[in-house]
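question for whoever is on the cluster today: can someone run the full assembly for these? two chains, 342 residues total. i dont have access anymore since they changed the login thing
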Amino acid sequence: MTRDEFERNRRRFGDTVEAWPAPFRQQALAFMAGGAGPEDDPDAALDRLVLEATLIEGDDQALARKVLARIDSGSTRSSLLPRFLLAPAGLAACAAAILVAVTLAGYQAARLQDDLQDSELLALASGARLSGNGGADIAADPAEEDSL
Amino acid sequence: MSHEGSRGDDDLLARIAAGSQGALSELIARHGNGLRVFAARYLGNAGDAEDVVQEVFVTVWKQAARFDPARARASTWLYRITANRCIDQRRRRALRSFIGLDDIRDEVASPEADAEATTAARQELAIVRDGLSRLPERQRMAVLLRAVGDLDIAAIAEVMGGSVGSAEQLLVRGRRALRDHLAMAAAGRERKSS
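^ ran it for u. tokens below:
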């Protein structure tokens, strides 16, 4: 932190450095201590090094404008789903999921039809009279069932 | 954080709960930078971090009335929301990466990258950033909450949703790994120079 930055932040946040928000507070305290803190605390020294290494430039006013615009438009994205679905990749993933679901449903329906044909064949083999709904008569007639 | 600063944040949140957009802008001016740095270094992507921080302040706008100053400091509450959003963002990216849709690379632009290699101090900062990016996620989060957010162990535990003991362990291990990384880099430099 330079002298100019320190003074600028003092105008923003007041004279009491301890009341400044992080990470300005740690930077200011290090600046006031002449660029270094107590040498007997290696953890604090490492924290200062990490802070110095991680700092990035950012425009807080632009951030505030974007946040207020999102609030005003009411287009906040509260969950993953709507945002994901709006993207082309999300649409493709949904289409794939629907295709898989339809395929599975098709197999399931076909399997049920196979069961029906099996019942009809069993009825024919046992000489039972076929009704409109396939093999329902077989189970309904215990005498014919015994003849099997 | 001092009680004076915390009270200032509490007042701002009370005004936000009452519908003051000016108070929200003031809160962003106070904490936007810290939250952005935390999110960017945790996620490893400045674009994702910007998006996360916007979501955080939109959440603050909606949920400010639910903040209870008797239960936690405002800064702890803000970092907790940010940490949760960051975890969501990581899961989102992991899902997109799993299904082969993620084309976003991990990167955060560092200032004066060209000049970075010119001095030993800047090299050291680059090594710290590299070491930080290699830490396990929870260790990285603990280290960043301490160094960037200036949170104490109890607040870190609250943000991360664990016990004080586990937060302390994460911080100790993270710092140790960073020191080892720095020591290895220094040894490598010495070998090269000799």
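summary bc i know u wont read the tokens: Chain B has two domains: 1-109, 111-194. Residues 111-194 of chain B form a domain with the Arc Repressor Mutant, subunit A fold (CATH 1.10.10.10).
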